[in-house]
Amino acid sequence: MSKLVRRSVSSFVVAGVAFTALAGGAASAQASTSSTVSVAAQSGDGLTYKKIKEPFTTPVGKCDKNGTTQQMTNCVLKKVVATDHTIDVLQRQRFGYAITKKQRQAYLKNDAAWLKSRTKKADQARQGGSLDSLRVAEKMLQISKKRVKTLEGR
Questions:
Q1: Which is the most buried residue in 15, 31, 104, 142, by most CB within 10 A?
Q2: 30, 28, 29, 31: which is closest to 126 by C-alpha?
Q3: What does 63-97 look like in DSSP terms, one character per residue?
Q4: Which is higher by pLDDT, 48 or 139?
């Protein structure tokens, strides 16, 4: 990908992340990590890009880094939402640049496998106790940040 295109995408991603971070609301987060996808974009060959659908209620509730376990978890989940938005932008761009149907199929398969893997790895962070939802959220964020670096070619 050219530097010009990467810079344009980065600017778009930053704007989207800022919007997503400001869009937080009052709904409470759930501890479940079952990730699914929803329709976001379709190619001319009938293949459809699948946008990440968060495995927790969005918008995420009140964030307080020194508050209750739920409020601390919400702070991390807001970062997960913003990071997943960045992933969606980068994956959608990659999907759109694919030249063949076979490439788009491979990207969709790769995206779904990554999301399934993230869910499984995040669930493995559970140790029991009241901090489980926070541990799972932190693991999801760690894995999602790594995905952004991979998609950006870093």
A1: 104
A2: 31
A3: --TTS-HHHHHHHHHHHHHHHHHHHHHHHHHHHHH
A4: 139
**Taking the domains of the chain in order of start, what are their residue ranges?**
3-152
pLDDT per residue as tens digits for the range 103-135: 999 999 999 999 999 999 999 999 999 999 999
Tell me the residue type at 16: G
Does the pTM of the predicted model rise above 0.85? no
Distances (CA, A) of 87 to 66, 67, 71, 126, 127: 28, 29, 24, 24, 28
Residue written as token pair 């946008």: 51
Beta bridge mates, 154: none
Long-range contacts of 39-47 (CB under 8 A, 24+ apart): 40/88, 40/92, 41/92, 41/95, 41/96, 43/95, 43/96, 43/98, 43/101, 43/104, 45/101, 45/104, 47/101, 47/104, 47/105, 47/108
Mean pLDDT of the chain: 79
Do the beta carbons of residue 53 and residue 113 sit within 8 Å? no
The interaxial angle of helices 69-97 and 3-22, nearest 10 deg, is 150
Q: What's the one-letter identity of residue 47?
A: L
